[in-house]
Amino acid sequence: MIRKLQAKDRQELADMINDTANFNAEEKSVAVEIIDEALSKPNHEYYNVFVFEREGKVLGYHCVGKRALTDGVFDLFWIVVGSNAQNLGVGKKLLEHTENFVKENNGRWILAETSSKDSYTATRNFYLRNNYSIVSQIKDFYSIGDNYSRKPG
């Protein structure tokens, strides 16, 4: 089941974020800050957080929001799947939920940015397998050797 974020999910999500090897300390901090922001403002325009729950256990989440000053462009900020739920289709279900949420909110485009680091190869391949394509890449955007890529869906 995919449902809206609830306060009871915060610790499980924080643990999941902190357990994610791809995220550096700053990324982990920002991810948790966004969870806290979404909890403090349940109808937040930019941070809509949904969790994937099975048998009372949160296995992953996604955060999506409308891009300011656009008429239907949404940012997919995060899809995070716990290490115990990798390769079980949770990420695909979360991505499909993102796409449905965007359609239901009159969206016309989803932007998902990813890193060019080798550790993100599986993430990039996930988006490519799900019909996303690279529309732009900025060399050394995040740091030297870590490019910025946008993939619309």
Description:
The chain has helices at residues 10-18, 25-40, 90-104, 121-129; strands at residues 2-4, 48-54, 57-66, 73-81, 109-115, 136-143, 146-152. The chain has a single domain (2-152), classed as Aminopeptidase, CATH 3.40.630. The protein is of the alpha+beta class and 153 residues long. A hairpin with a 2-residue loop joins strand 6 and strand 7 (146-152).
Tell how many strands the DSSP assignment holds.
7
Estimate percent helicity: 25-40%
Q: Structurally, how many domains make up the residues?
A: 1
User: Strand order within the widest sheet?
Assistant: 1-2-3-4-5-7-6
User: What's the SSE pattern?
Assistant: EHHEEEHEHEE
Number of helices: 4
